[in-house]
Amino acid sequence: MGFMGFLGGPLGWVMNLIYQVVNNYGWSIVLFTILVKVAMLPFTIKQQKSSARMQAYQPMINEINKKWANDRQKQQEELMKLQEEFGFSPMAGCAPVLLTMLVLFGVIDVVYKPLQHILRIPADIINTAMNGMGIANNYMAQNAMISKIQADPSVAGQWFSPEQMEKIQTFNFHFLGIDLSQMPQFSFSPETLPLLIFPVLSVLTMFLSNIIMTKMSGQEMVGAMKWMPWIMSFMFVTYSFQVPVAFSLYYTISNVTMILQSVFMKMLYDPQKMKEQVLAEIEEKKQAKKRKKQVVVVDAATGEKVTKEVNEAEMVKLRLAKARQQDEERYKDERTTPLNAFANGEE
């Protein structure tokens, strides 16, 4: 919880500012989610471009992996050379995924601790009141405390100031008639059935976003990676029943926003067109390596200067040979003088 608490602090501060405007927990989560997605748009655009570039480089990567399948060192050398020559980075598109996961953990802490993060009541006061009220200190404690105080304010008046009590009593947990502080359950009673709406919607929108994002981004996953989004979706089915409904609302809005964002990104940066552009750049670099250039070199046998036509690879070899020759001339005296002195009996 310490890691999530670190992330929940700044995210809770932002959500607190939104809550002061709308005075509704649910709408605060909705607006917060949209704000986060807008802030992450530059990273999403970068990921879209990186994905298109990776598709263009994939045949070259596959060829290297196949050719050097039995020599891991040579395989890594060739992949590094590919990165240097053509400028692709396999890690370039990881930032949006990492940021999304960080925000996810932060939001979990916010919905666990709305008293601390949204109402901005100090943690030590909350813990003291929790002990005095006999509430177990777990991830549902602050949600339970708010519900208990709203039902009977007299149970906590001695621990909170009048201003804090007013914040707690007026805190609006309900969104579209659903109490976001409650834990969803596999129950079909009239009281608990509404709590299943957002967990179910979060799972359905996750499935839909997986399909649409894959299609819009033009990604072609193979092997185990093809099933990874679906495995994560099934994992979330279990996880959504271990946190307050507020998190499922966040995840539902997040998925819907990602779907709309994918459609927008497809219109703005078409992956197929970007892939064709990258392929053209790769072909241009390949042709540049093959082009002949005229250079003046010194013939090793005659010492005369002659003009030769070389391609880029041959040019690199000539530069390397010249550098070695210069080093040889520069350090020749340093290597020979001590030996000559020893041969002449000098110390």
What features would you describe in this structure?
With 347 residues, this protein is mainly alpha-helical. It is 69% helix and 5% strand. It has helices at residues 2-22, 25-39, 41-67, 72-86, 94-112, 114-117, 123-133, 141-151, 162-170, 197-217, 228-239, 245-268, 271-290, 312-343; strands at residues 174-175, 178-179, 293-298, 305-310. Strands 1-2 form a two-stranded antiparallel ribbon. The radius of gyration is 32 Å and the shape is elongated.
Which short descriptors sum up this protein?
two-stranded antiparallel ribbon; mainly alpha; elongated; two-stranded antiparallel sheet; disordered C terminus; 14 helices; 347 residues
The span between the termini is: 71 Å
* Spatial sequence of strands, sheet with the most strands: 1-2
| Spatial shape | elongated
Helix/strand-derived category reads: mainly alpha
Q: Helix count, per DSSP?
A: 14
Helical content (DSSP H or I, runs of 4+): 55-70%
Low-confidence stretches: 341-347
Q: Beta-strand level of the residues, as a percent range?
A: under 5%
Mean pLDDT: 77
- How large, in whole angstroms, is the Cα Rg? 32 Å
Major β-sheet, in short?
Answer: 2 strands, antiparallel
Order of helices and strands: HHHHHHHHHEEHHHHEEH
Number of strands: 4
How do the strands and helices of this protein lay out in sequence?
Blueprint: H1 2-22, H2 25-39, H3 41-67, H4 72-86, H5 94-112, H6 114-117, H7 123-133, H8 141-151, H9 162-170, E1 174-175, E2 178-179, H10 197-217, H11 228-239, H12 245-268, H13 271-290, E3 293-298, E4 305-310, H14 312-343
Antiparallel strand pairs: 1-2, 3-4
Helix pairs in contact: 1-2, 1-5, 2-12, 3-4, 3-13, 10-11, 10-12
